[in-house]
Every structure is written in C-alpha cells, then in structure tokens.
Amino acid sequence: MTTAKICGLSTPDTLDAAIAGGASHVGFVFFAPSPRNLSFDAAAGLAARVPDRVARVGVFVDPADDLLERAIAAGRLDVLQLHKTAPERIAAIRARHCLPVWAAVAVKARADLDAARPLAGLVDRILYDAKTPEGASLPGGMGLRFDWGLLDGFRHPAPWALSGGLDAGNVVEAIRRTGAPIVDVSSGVESAPGVKDATKIAAFLKAVSSA
Ligand SMILES: O=C(O)c1ccccc1N[C@@H]1O[C@H](COP(=O)(O)O)[C@@H](O)[C@H]1O
C-alpha cells in the first residue's frame, strides 16, 4: 500500500486535514526563501498536534547544524529531508543528529539518477523529485513533474519515495506507473504558493488510498 506525505504545512486546519485524511508523514519546511518556511514557534505549535502514528519530516536545503538542532527540537522531527546536500555532509548530519535521513535526488534526465547511487547505505530513503530550473529560488516545491518512465528498470539503491508535481488528478497514475511506496506532495494541494487547501489535501489522500 502506498502512503503519502503532505509537505509544507503551516496552519493547524490544513495539518489536521492531512492527519484526518490518513497521511503517513507531514512535512515542515525550514528554508527561508520558501513561501512555506516555518518559524520555530510555529513549528512547535504544529508539531504538538501530530499523533505518534504520523511522522514529522523537516525539509532543509544544505542546512547548518544550528538550524537542524533548533528545528529538530521545535518541530519534534522524526525524519530529516535534505535537498542539495553532498553525500559527505548527509553522512555527517545523520551521524550527529541520530535521525532517519531522506535525501532528494533532482531528476530531469536518466543521468540524474546517477546521483542516487552514492547514497546507498548513507540514507534511509531517496526522494526522487523534479529538477527545478537553473537559478530557481527553490530546489523543490514548484509543482514540477519529471518523466516517471525514467525510473523504469532502475535499481533503487535505498528505499524511496516519489515527488514533483503530484496532485489528486495524477497521483493514481504515478503510483501505477512507478510503484512508489510513498508519494510526496506540496504545490498540488495548494490554492496559491504556500497556501494549503484542506479540500485538495483530502482529495489527494483519497486518491492515494484508492490506488
Ligand atoms: O516546498 C518547498 O518550499 C521546498 C523548499 C525547499 C526544498 C524542498 C521543498 N519542497 C519539496 O519539493 C517536493 C515537491 O514539491 P511539489 O509537490 O512539486 O510542489 C516535495 O518533496 C517537497 O518536500
């Protein structure tokens, strides 16, 4: 059965919608340029609403240790999701903070999957995400999709998840096409960048459970 992570949550009502709809993971973004960036206080308030059966994932872009420490404490994080972070740094973060680590691999062409291979044994999960354009302010969370066929026949070096441009209208096909064990969405359950929509969250989770 495929489970779902709803990422970039920033309000109690949309967090509650994700939990009520059956999300396995909820994502809190700690990256200042993002419209979904959370303060530590906001993260603490949201984290307190999350039951034990749902994992709290902190989303970071090549983070420093002090940011990680404060976010882990405030957001009571269960998982660290790292974007644009070198393998050596991923290993150091995992060793220092003693939490499961997901590493994003940005995909546009088949050759981009080469970046997944050195992650074997270093990460707890690889998150295949669409590569954002050169110079974009965000490495993810832009609602971009990649060609899922690029994953055909690829020997995944670690457990994995699929993200990038998913929504209630395409997630069933994404699961059918790739066999993803976890799907991850942000823009596809928003009414505007950074504004989550409880109705879209419910529709997304219903689609995932029907797949
Ligand atoms: O959502 C963000 O603002 C963000 C910021 C920095 C790194 C990653 C971010 N989001 C991640 O992007 C993917 C896909 O998002 P989308 O559904 O295509 O909008 C997802 O994993 C988010 O965790």
Automatic annotation (TrEMBL):
GO terms for biological process: L-tryptophan biosynthetic process. Residues 4-206 form the N-(5'phosphoribosyl) anthranilate isomerase (PRAI) domain. Keywords: Amino-acid biosynthesis, Aromatic amino acid biosynthesis, Isomerase, Tryptophan biosynthesis. It is an enzyme of class 5 (isomerase). GO terms for molecular function: phosphoribosylanthranilate isomerase activity. It catalyses: N-(5-phospho-beta-D-ribosyl)anthranilate = 1-(2-carboxyphenylamino)-1-deoxy-D-ribulose 5-phosphate. Pfam families: PRAI. Pathway: Amino-acid biosynthesis; L-tryptophan biosynthesis; L-tryptophan from chorismate: step 3/5. Gene3D superfamilies: Aldolase class I. The keyword Amino-acid biosynthesis applies. Its EC number is 5.3.1.24. InterPro entries: Aldolase_TIM, PRAI_dom, RibuloseP-bd_barrel, TrpF_fam. The keyword Nucleotide-binding does not apply. Belongs to the TrpF family. This is N-(5'-phosphoribosyl)anthranilate isomerase. The lineage of its organism: Bacteria, Pseudomonadati, Pseudomonadota, Alphaproteobacteria, Sphingomonadales. The gene is trpF.
